Amino acid sequence: MSEQNELRRAVKSLETVRRAKDLLPSFFRKQEPNQSGGLAWAMVGISPEILYAFDIPVEWPENYSTLCASKLVSTQFIEQAEADGYSPDLCSYLLNNMGYVSRMMELGGTVPPEAPKGGMGSPTMLLSATVACDPRSKWFQSLSSRYMSDIPVFAFEAASPPYDTEVGDPNVQDNYKALLRDSLQNMVTFLSQQTGRQIDLARLRHAITVSHEQAKLIWEIHELRVAQPCPMGAEDFFSGCVIPMTYMTGQVESVDYLRRLRDELRDRVAKRIGVLKDERYRLLWVGLPPWYNLGFFNAIGDLGAVFPVETMYFTGPPVDADLSDPVEAIVERTWKRAEWANSCSTEHIPEHFVPCNQTPAGSGLIRSWVKKFKLDGAIMHRTRTCRAMSWGQVHIKNLLAEEGIPSLIIESDMGDPRNWNQSTMMAQVRGLLSTIDSVRKTGAKA
Questions:
Q1: Using CA atoms, how far apart are residues 288 and 129, in angstroms rounded to an integer?
Q2: Domain coordinates of the chain in residue numbers?
């Protein structure tokens, strides 16, 4: 296969990541409606802990879209959605999901044979979140009204303080906490109506306790990657960390997996085992990855470059909260993360006051990573259909240049492989590494 057309899955370095499907069986098992709570389809931004407290099984269409991309079947679903009239400029996760459901309806409600892992279970409710991008505000509404016989939809409204807001002002805190508190309470009411029962606060308290342990482990993993040589690169991070830290918040199974991963990294650091035998460049990855071609990171590794840190799916340092009122604990924990993110300069990132296990990396934090991770350069993935995760990249490029760090912006998509050109991408990467070599020789700024 020529380099131009080469799309391949990542070759993982870590044994724990290679065994993720064995160690996280509940996530990779197809979900089905249960008698007491049905089945939810949910977006990132919906608290997995609250769903756990209601004992509601859940599917995540955004994650399923990345699976379809990795199996190289996303193009079929995306083209089906486009044939139904949806614009190719919309989020490719959304288009994949619309095309999947459209195809399913064509087949009388059965899972399309090309759908990986047996498809998704049929939902009884749709839980959307308006975090980060515009299409999310209408995605599930359109899904319900056009394809799925008006399945009930709940929309979680996200709100975040602007980057120049004084988050220490009690009035600002009270306002944003009240907005989040109302949204959470409205979701609890909706779920109670759908399931016919009240939230199990003891179960929620347990889930939040577990998620706090999760956050500590994720932070330890992040810190261990500072080591030289780097013990884990982006191919292992995106393949092995995104699911447990994003979609399995509050689940003991995820904690066990992350602890095992943390311990493997500790051992590699102690033995000075790196991702690469000859680590010559340390790069920052900015933005979403090309899920259909995580092997791209291995190809870059063949040139001696490793990614010890990424801006996407970054969680920030762990925070705790009083669990006497577990719903209020989610509010407090989320606000503490937002305060911390705000302190790191959030002028170029979307909403960060959201009850999920992510805190987008602000420019102040990225500046600090230059020295902490001993970065030589950066690659930014400008994703055509996810502008929310791409804006600010020129700003970051300019900030890194002030630090003497050269960077590259490549253009493609996270879930739609039709715009990928391996030869072009690799030529650009080689150009970046050549620039890094020149900077090293001359000592000039990028």
A1: 19
A2: 25-200
Asked if the bond preceding 229 is cis, omega within 30° of 0, the reply is yes
Establish how many alpha carbons lie within 13 A of residue 396's alpha carbon, considering only the half-sphere containing its beta carbon. Answer: 34
For residue 382, the SS3 value is strand
Residue 58: beta bridge partners? 40
User: What sign has the CA pseudo-torsion 185, 189, 195, 199?
Assistant: positive
- pLDDT tens-digit readout, 78-133: 999 999 999 999 999 999 999 999 999 999 999 999 999 999 999 999 999 988 78
* ∠ CA 399-400-402, rounded to 5°: 65
- Tell me how far apart the alpha carbons of residues 230 and 307 are, in angstroms, rounded to a whole number: 8
Intervals of the chain under pLDDT 50: 1-4
- Measured distance CA(270)–CA(193) in Å, rounded: 52
Instruction: Tell me the three state secondary structure of residue 20.
Output: helix
The pLDDT value given to residue 2:
46
Residue 165 has φ and ψ, to the nearest 5°, of -80, 145
Question: Which among 179, 90, 185, 173 has a CA at the least distance from the CA of 139?
Answer: 90
Q: How far is CA 440 from the centre of its chain?
A: 33
pLDDT at site 4: 42
Give CA–CA dist 365/346, Å, rounded. 9
CA dist 73 and 77 (Å) reads: 7
3-state percent breakdown (helix, strand, coil) of the chain, nearest 5: 50, 10, 40
Distance, in Å, from the CA atom of 412 to the CA atom of 324, rounded to the nearest integer, reads: 47
- Which two tokens mark 216? 């500590």
